[in-house]
């Protein structure tokens, strides 16, 4: 059974979203290891096959190795996949991708997942909307998005972004400042959340897409 993969309650308030309020990050006391979050997100098991593209971090690759996941780092020909990958993990820092959307379905196993880790120096911007639009247009109807706080590869919590309530709850726990300023920030993100624009203001966005 897979572990619960989403926690939105940190041990203590940690950070004001740096893009909007310009306050430097503070570190939570929890050790910065990928296992509690990425392990539950990927649900790695022995014998799985994974295609890992980009540079996700040595600790994450070590996690997959520990659980006996067979990792490939180069895109094979669809004719040589032999049953498909259980998941594809792709790091993206720009607009481009080394994968062609029309070929991804042939690379994945029937219940396989395409996991795209978007990040940038400050914010992902409109790339998140562009990626989501492309996925849904390519037949990936089951799509989830998450914000990894406070680091993409060593997060302490994942915040679901498909519904406004978890994200608003996360903001109420982590946004500091004076009363008026805090209310203004919360109101701004509430509006952006209901418009579906909040992902673009975040420093990272994890997209998980399934064919069914």
Brief characterization of the structure:
With 212 residues, the protein is of the alpha/beta class. The protein has helices at residues 18-21, 35-42, 58-66, 101-107, 127-137, 164-174, 179-195; strands at 49-53, 70-72, 85-92, 108-119, 142-149, 157-160, 204-210. Residues 1-6 and 8-34 have low confidence and may be disordered.
Helix and strand topology:
Blueprint: H1 18-21, H2 35-42, E1 49-53, H3 58-66, E2 70-72, E3 85-92, H4 101-107, E4 108-119, H5 127-137, E5 142-149, E6 157-160, H6 164-174, H7 179-195, E7 204-210
Structure description:
The protein has a seven-stranded mixed sheet with strand order 2-1-3-4-7-5-6, with helices on both faces. With 212 residues, it is of the alpha/beta class. The protein has a domain at 32-163 and 202-210: 3-Layer(aba) Sandwich (Rossmann fold), CATH 3.40.50. It is built from seven helices and seven strands. It is globular, with a radius of gyration of 17 Å. Helix 6 (164-174) packs antiparallel against helix 7 (179-195). 32% of the residues lie in helices and 22% in strands.
Main CATH class of the domain at 32-163 and 202-210: Alpha Beta
Report strand %.
Answer: 15-25%
**How big is the Rg?**
17 Å
Mean pLDDT: 79
| pLDDT < 50 stretches | 1-6, 8-34
Specify the biggest β-sheet.
7 strands, mixed
Broad structural category = alpha/beta
- Helix % is 25-40%
Order of strands in the sheet with most strands: 2-1-3-4-7-5-6
The H-level CATH homologous superfamily of the domain at 32-163 and 202-210, spelled out, is Vaccinia Virus protein VP39
Run of helices and strands: HHEHEEHEHEEHHE
Cα distance spanning the termini: 20 Å
Question: In CATH terms, what is the architecture of the domain at 32-163 and 202-210?
Answer: 3-Layer(aba) Sandwich
CATH third-tier fold name of the domain at 32-163 and 202-210: Rossmann fold
**What overall form do the CA principal axes indicate?**
globular
According to DSSP, the number of beta strands is: 7
- Per DSSP, the total helix count is 7
